[in-house]
Amino acid sequence: MKKFVNDPKDYVPQMLEGLALANPDTLRYVPEYNLIMRADAPREDKVSVVQGSGSGHEPAHVMNVGKGMLDAACPGDVFAAPPADFVYETVKLVASPKGVLLLVNNYTGDRMAFEMAEELSQADGYAVRTLFVDDDVAVQDSTYTVGRRGVAGNFFVMKAVCAAAERGADLDELYRIGEKVNAVTRTMGMALTACTPPAKGSPLFELPDDEVEMGVGIHGEPGRNREKLQPADELVRELLTAVVDDLPYTSGDTVALMVNGLGGTPIGELYLVYGRAHKQLAERGIEIRRSYVGEYCTSLDMAGASLSLVRLDDEISELLAAPAEIALRVF
Amino acid sequence: MKKFVNDPKDYVPQMLEGLALANPDTLRYVPEYNLIMRADAPREDKVSVVQGSGSGHEPAHVMNVGKGMLDAACPGDVFAAPPADFVYETVKLVASPKGVLLLVNNYTGDRMAFEMAEELSQADGYAVRTLFVDDDVAVQDSTYTVGRRGVAGNFFVMKAVCAAAERGADLDELYRIGEKVNAVTRTMGMALTACTPPAKGSPLFELPDDEVEMGVGIHGEPGRNREKLQPADELVRELLTAVVDDLPYTSGDTVALMVNGLGGTPIGELYLVYGRAHKQLAERGIEIRRSYVGEYCTSLDMAGASLSLVRLDDEISELLAAPAEIALRVF
Questions:
Q1: What CATH class has A9-184?
Q2: A260 contacts A308 by C-beta, under 8 angstroms
Q3: Of A138, A294, B3, B246, which is most buried, counting CB atoms within 10 Å of its CB?
Q4: Which of B149, B159, B219, B311 is catalytic?
């Protein structure tokens, strides 16, 4: 294993500590509960939005905490759900009189932790709702999932919900917006290589030098099939066809297109993929209004990418375009 | 080779095409000269700033074109300087009455191309100056260099110069600012793995599973030495000591700290490295005022990172904080 890591069990806390040290004015790291929160949370004039998941998907979600985005993120260890009591403590720390919305990708472990935390919080009198994201079209059920998995398209649900929260929308309205965005968002990804969790020290699965895993999960779960590596145009066509046909997106639709890197793929390749996907969508009569190219939801050092589409209307477009300030800034 | 690529000779043009398609309102791709320019360039009220280098270092420099940043970037093929006549054509396309500043990292091939383009442009009556960046402390001369190499610290020179250009500073003033920032900027990087150029199809060098290349160049050039992989704290200490001792940076200095990923290292590890470097600088009495964590200058898919320091004064701090809008935005 070749990584920048000290003791592997300190990987997540030392990453969170670094994140907070790099953003001393805006973020607060609470080591007792392994969480990152906004320095100004909770704010009485807005619903607090919290997201949790296993670590190893950065920037999701600890680097999405900030103005116009999350109020807090409570990650678990690498590829492991956070403990329910840490989620519960997070709710208590950021609870606003307007309530708390929990955003969670649909994995069995995460569902259990967040539903338990929701129950504990509600028993204490907190106004809490939990929204699940399941944008991955690759497989119906999966290693860690009943139903579809939540992957990179989660970004769009989070961005829209958090923009509305910043403007004072109430808890039910946020839930409505989140469900609406989730319903028009679809994603599929593929792996060129496996990834190596720090505590395991070796690749999570074996993938021959000339094969790819089409429809891979963000924890290295199997996808639809293994196939031979092909030129980018063919790989993009396969991903895009699966995504487009699922909703389906049709000629005349306006969409946001995301090309998400899985951690080990350089930005140059992601822009190449973007260009090919853009042209293939144009051939289908689908118009791209908003473009996202980079890393949004990764799988440690996995080489690979996912494509996401969101069908836009005025409400969603406007929420996605709202200003936000998070750790992953360029300046 | 496992990459998202079609014919390897199309890697750079298809990447540039994707970049322009993702930014239709702000960027223009000129395939004849392999360049990316601002849609609003040239502007009569500012010096145009152009940067060139080999490709494979993205986001440097084609993804740094935009308001408050570069007016154009003219990359060569992967790890190859752009042809002098392409640089010359770029100058003509973006020439402003206030002049053109060419920013170049110090590599022999790039120097030749840009100095020739400068001469050709000056013979045509254009006001052009060329500024070289050489922030890498690893080695005195190198495979492709007489004198020190220019690496990730280039970002700070570019950002400061472009901020001043946006406000109307003249060519000589930009040159002064660029030399000033370069003089207080130092960088050293290290490789955990080699990188694979698309046209070569195999790793550029061999690095055993338990060794790192300390002081590696951004084209995979040898650094100071090969050594055994160590815990992150020790790797950071070695990089930081080389950087700090070189200027030197001393107790009481205020600095910007950049942790730059080389392409294959996930953002979680970069934040872990940031935290360790932050603490080691604090022990030395050096205060971090600005933090940069992410990919600024990469080497294709190489796993590894570099650390850069800039000694700040009021002028540099203010220029680094100026607003800018480039392709690599989060929203």
A1: alpha beta
A2: yes
A3: A138
A4: B219
pLDDT recorded at residue A330: 53
Mutation for testing the B interface, residue in A260, A271, A306 having most B CBs under 10 Å:
A271
Q: What is the pLDDT of residues B249-297, one digit of tens each?
A: 999 999 999 999 999 999 999 999 999 999 999 999 999 999 999 999 9
Chain B residue with minimum CA distance to A282:
B21
pLDDT at A233 over 90: yes
Contacts of B63 (CB under 8 A, 6+ apart): A267, A271, B19, B326, B327, B328
The Cα of B225 is separated from the nearest Cα of chain A by a number of Å equal to 17
Q: In this complex, is the C-beta atom of B294 within 8 Å of any C-beta atom belonging to chain A?
A: yes
Measured between CA atoms, the residue of chain B closest to residue A324 is: B331
Q: Are the CB atoms for A329 and A64 separated by under 8 Å? A: no
Please tell me the distance in Å from A295's CA to the nearest CA on chain B.
9
Calpha distance A239→B290 (Å, rounded): 40
| Contact call for B159 and A291, based on CB within 8 A | no
Q: Which residues of A193-209 are buried (b: 16+ CB within 10 A; e: fewer)?
A: bbbbbbbeeebbeebee
Domain ranges of chain B: 9-184, 185-320
Residue A69 confidence (pLDDT): 96
With an 8 Å Cβ cutoff, are B21 and A233 in contact?
no
pLDDT tens column, B131-151: 999 999 999 887 788 899 999
What number of CA atoms fall less than 13 Å from residue B158's CA on the CB side?
Answer: 35
Examine the pLDDT at B156 and tell me if it is beyond 90: yes
Q: Which of A279, A282, A286, A277 is nearest to A253 (CA)?
A: A286
How many CA atoms, within 13 angstroms, populate the side-chain half-sphere of residue B289? 14
Do the interacting molecules here have an ipTM over 0.95?
yes
Residue A268 vs residues A39, A94, B22, B55, B103: alpha-carbon distances, Å: 35, 39, 13, 9, 21
> Which one of A272, A283, A287 makes the best mutation probe of the B interface by having the most chain B beta carbons within 10 Å?
A272
Q: Is A264 exposed, middle or buried (0-12, 13-18, 19+ CB in 10 A)?
A: buried
Side chain identity at B170, as an amino acid letter?
D
Q: Which stretch of DSSP H or E encloses residue B67?
A: strand B66-67
Helix or strand or coil: residue B260?
Answer: strand
Q: Tokens at residue B50, please?
A: 């152009």
For the cut 60, the answer to whether the pLDDT of residue B118 exceeds it is yes
For residue A329, name the pLDDT band (cuts at 50, 70, 90).
low
The two three-digit tokens of residue A101, written as one number: 């919305």
CB neighbour list of residue B231: distance below 8 Å, 6 or more residues apart: A5, A6, A7
- Cβ atoms A29, A19 nearer than 8 A: yes
Please give the radius of gyration of chain B, using alpha carbons only, rounded to the nearest integer: 19
Q: Are A137 and A246 in contact (CB under 8 A)?
A: yes
Where are the alpha helices (H) located in chain A, listed in sequence order? 11-22, 84-94, 108-123, 154-166, 171-183, 232-246, 267-283, 314-320
Q: Nearest CA to B224 among B189, B184, B257, B194?
A: B189
- Nearest Cα neighbor of B67 from B96, B26, B98, B108 is B26
Fold of B185-320: Hypothetical Protein Tm841; Chain: A;domain 3 (3.30.1180)
pLDDT digits (tens, 9 = 90+) for A245-282: 999 999 999 999 999 999 999 999 999 999 999 999 99
Chain B nearest C-alpha distance from A109 (Å): 22
Chain A residues close to B6, C-beta within 8 Å: 231-233, 276
Q: Do A18 and B323 touch (CB under 8 A)?
A: no
Pairing type for strands A27-30 and A35-38 reads antiparallel
Active-site residue identified among B38, B46, B57, B149: B57
